[in-house]
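B., you asked whether I could sanity-check this one before it goes into the benchmark set. Here's the sequence:
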Amino acid sequence: MPKDAPVNTGATLEQAPVGPRRRVSEMQAKLHRWAVADPGRRFDDLFNLVHDPATLIAAFDRVAGNRGARTAGVDDFTVADVEERIGVPGFLDNLRAQLKTGTFRALPVREKKIPKPGGSGKVRRLGIPVVADRVVQAALKLVLEPIFEADFKPVSYGFRPNRRAQDAVAEIHFFGTRGYRWVLDADIQACFDEIEHAALMDRVRRRIKDKRVLALVKAFLKAGVLTELGELQDTHTGTPQGGVISPLLANIALSVLDEHLHATWEPGGGMSTQRRRERRRLKGLPNWRVVRYADDFVVLVHGTEQDTEVVREEIAHVLRPIGLRLSPAKTRVVHMSDGFDFLGFRIQWRRKRGTSKWHVYTFVAQRPLRSVKAKIRALTRRTSQQDLGYVLTSLNMITHGWANYFRHAVAKNTFSMLDNFTWWRLIRMLRERHHWTWSDVRRRFVTASGRWLSITAGEIELRKISAIPVTRYRYRSKSIPSPWLLLET
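And here's what the prediction gave me:
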């Protein structure tokens, strides 16, 4: 680090909160600015930033604010237990002392198997670290993320600041309307479990020179897993899902794919300008665009089915050195007119009803629709005796969170259908609970003027998701703002 530019001071971030979080924001802004200014720079002396008190406080706040705070690791301690039995200051002081003296040791993660969505019967393996490991991983992420964000390509959207799934879908929509209609709908087999550690660490070393930071990253990769049967297994590959730093490490590994497929879009490349892309098409050469969200990605091809198959073979070759492979069962080449599912959306190029014009449409896919209906059914079983206020509150949280995710799709009719489905499930539950006839229902929920009333419990009301406005999500391209202000000191 430059002697005249200490990392924790000097940056002016008006919107950052005072205290530790402001110091961390200033540190991140400087690291990001230096990484952008010098793409070949390898950073040393980062370990002091990892165990800095401000970094650890900000890291603990992130861990405590996560839903997983209520889940214990192999030591059976949750965040609440740490706060009650040890106290946050004492816990962080002890953790910092272990890091400084080199006595910190990463513990194995606790295996937790959860069913994969879609009712396939398959399970996903999560690895739950202990609270201390989560805090150190969060501190590592605070330091490493602004450095690697300078290198990540704009076609990657998963687990990155200021980016969301809707941005990825908007990019597919944008290029789909411009002739990119052959699609490689790809799936990486067991991505988080099979990343080669040596290949991943090589990519981390491109930017990180500090051996103590590298040793910490490697320690978390090699920490091992305590299975649900109580067996301790070594981890020779992969980065366990459930770890705070795992998404960042996965993005670092998968950036090899982004760099390969996006290289021709860089300044001077064969697809860097509209004119050059048009020239390629006149010569019969294909253009392509990758859109990635974590380990889910599609490649849009302006060309032929054969061109898309060639890209598929290229990708398999690029992924092999980092220990990854495409799933033969789930990877397919499809034309956009046939439609494909991505991040819960159904994307299809089709004719607008009543016209001869064709457009790219985004619908709600069947899998998330089945999933939310299953959650509604579970809350509204006919013989359920749960408090009605609790049921209504839970239904509002589930349906509105779901609808806000899909409100940029062609979803108005879907929202209305889901409102009707929820209403009938509740009415059926109430009729069974109170032994109501249909006349009793009408007497309680229909006014003298014939208007139906909402289902309520005290001040809690079942809210309709059809009232949520359905709007077009605009493609933001390169206008997505950086979370760190690149200000000169």
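One thing to flag: The radius of gyration is 26 Å. Otherwise nothing jumped out at me.
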